Amino acid sequence: MGTGQIVICLFDNGKFFVIQSCFFVQNHIRNTDLTNVMQHTCFLDDFQGAVLANRAWASGAKKAHILAELGNAYDLGLQKSFTDTFEALGGTVTADNFPANTSDFSAYIAKAVSEGAEVIFAPTSIQYAQLIIQTTAAQNVTIPLMAGDTWDS
C-alpha cells in the first residue's frame, strides 16, 4: 500500500494549471516512481470549448459551424461552451445536431459551406470524425476542421 498526492491539472498554451490537489491511498502501486505524486492531465468540456473558440477567433474565423451528435452530452457540452465563447468574442455560430448512427454528412458539410462557415467545429467521437473528414475531402472543402480531445486517434 502506498500514499501520495493526486494533482489534477489543465494544460493550455504550454502551461499547466493545477485545479485540484488531494491525497490518495493506493493498494497497488506498480511503478515506484509514482509513490509520492501522481499526475493526471485532463481537459474539461467548458475549458476545451472556450480554448477552441478562442483559437478559431484568433485564426481569423468570424463564422463557425458546429456538427454535434443529438443527445450526446459530451458533444452538446462542447457545442455550448464553444458557442458561448465564440459569440462573446463577436462571432456567429450555426449548428446542426445529427442523430446517432448518422453515416452521411454530405448535406451537413454542404450547409456549412453555403452558410459561409470559416471553421467547422465537430466535437464528435472518432466514429464520426472519419466520416466528417472523408466528406470534406470528397467535397473539396478547405474550411478548417476543429474538434475536441476525442479526435486524438
Biggest sheet architecture: 4 strands, parallel
- Give the strand content: 25-35%
| Tally of DSSP β-strands | 7
- In spatial order, strands of the major sheet run 5-4-6-7
Which residue ranges are poorly predicted, with pLDDT under 50 across at least 5 consecutive positions?
A: 1-11, 16-41
> How helix-rich are the residues, as a percent range?
25-40%
Number of helices, where a helix is a run of at least 4 consecutive DSSP H or I residues: 4
List keywords for this structure.
3-stranded mixed β-sheet, alpha/beta, 153 residues, 4 helices, 34% helix, single chain
Task: Describe the protein.
There is one protein chain. This protein is α/β, with parallel strands linked by helices and 153 residues long. The chain has four helices and seven strands. It has a four-stranded parallel beta sheet, covered by helices on one side. β1 (2-12) and β2 form a beta hairpin. α1 (45-58) packs across α2. It is globular, with a radius of gyration of 19 Å. Residues 1-11 and 16-41 have low confidence and may be disordered.
